[in-house]
Amino acid sequence: MSDKPLSADAKLQQEFNRWAAAGEGEKMQRHHLNITEKTLRLMNLRAGERVLDLGCGSGWATRLVARLVGEGPEGFGQVVGIDVSDEMVRLAREASKEFENILYVQGSAEKIPWEENFFDKVLSVESFYYYADQDRALMELFRVMAPRGRLFILINLYKDNPYSLQWVDKLKVPVQVRSAAEYVELLKKHAFENVEARRIPDDTPTPDDHQTKWFKSLDDLRASKREGALLLMASKPDLRTPAPGYTIY
């Protein structure tokens, strides 16, 4: 009798546990810091806000956010990092011990283990294209976001950056590849408002001795950085999502 095939989430968990063991979580910060810092400025984060970092990996972006929403006149901000990889969550907790305003939870983007109408802002860096059911993930994000909450999805892999498509076949898990226009329509379909797509170029120089396993050449890597990552921004309308008729967690 054949073994039951792994679910999409189980495959992601397995692959990103392998990444965690190989130290890839730390590399993500070096690779994505420039575009993430630009995104954080656009997020206009304020002390006291409640923020979700979806697909948090080893927690490097979660910690950046935690510093920005920490204690202030508006209260004590909280950041929740969620990742499908239990090993990434373990690394994130280990690296975030000095933070009192971070909580890491292992969980799926398709069934976010959190209550309705909670998060003022949502950040997702370089993970959204891994989600097998992006419709379901957006339904879940809409559910956990507060009325008028803001969503920021940052991804390097999308159709309009042809250089990024070079690494689709190198990944060991399936990915979703859409254009900026297709993502905008997808967000609108899920009732998000003020939907906008923006390019975020990566200004970090690529040294001539840099080793790349994802691109055919350093010129292609540099061209991809010039094309930039895709930042999707949207708002939840001013309405509260009712609790679902099933248990979330």
TrEMBL record:
<keyword id="KW-0830">Ubiquinone</keyword>
<feature type="domain" description="Methyltransferase type 11">
    <location>
        <begin position="52"/>
        <end position="153"/>
    </location>
</feature>
<dbReference type="Pfam" id="PF08241">
    <property type="entry name" value="Methyltransf_11"/>
</dbReference>
<dbReference type="InterPro" id="IPR029063">
    <property type="entry name" value="SAM-dependent_MTases_sf"/>
</dbReference>
<keyword id="KW-0949">S-adenosyl-L-methionine</keyword>
<dbReference type="GO" id="GO:0008757">
    <property type="term" value="F:S-adenosylmethionine-dependent methyltransferase activity"/>
</dbReference>
<dbReference type="GO" id="GO:0032259">
    <property type="term" value="P:methylation"/>
</dbReference>
<protein>
    <submittedName>
        <fullName>Putative Methylase involved in ubiquinone/menaquinone biosynthesis</fullName>
    </submittedName>
</protein>
<dbReference type="InterPro" id="IPR013216">
    <property type="entry name" value="Methyltransf_11"/>
</dbReference>
<keyword id="KW-0489">Methyltransferase</keyword>
<keyword id="KW-0808">Transferase</keyword>
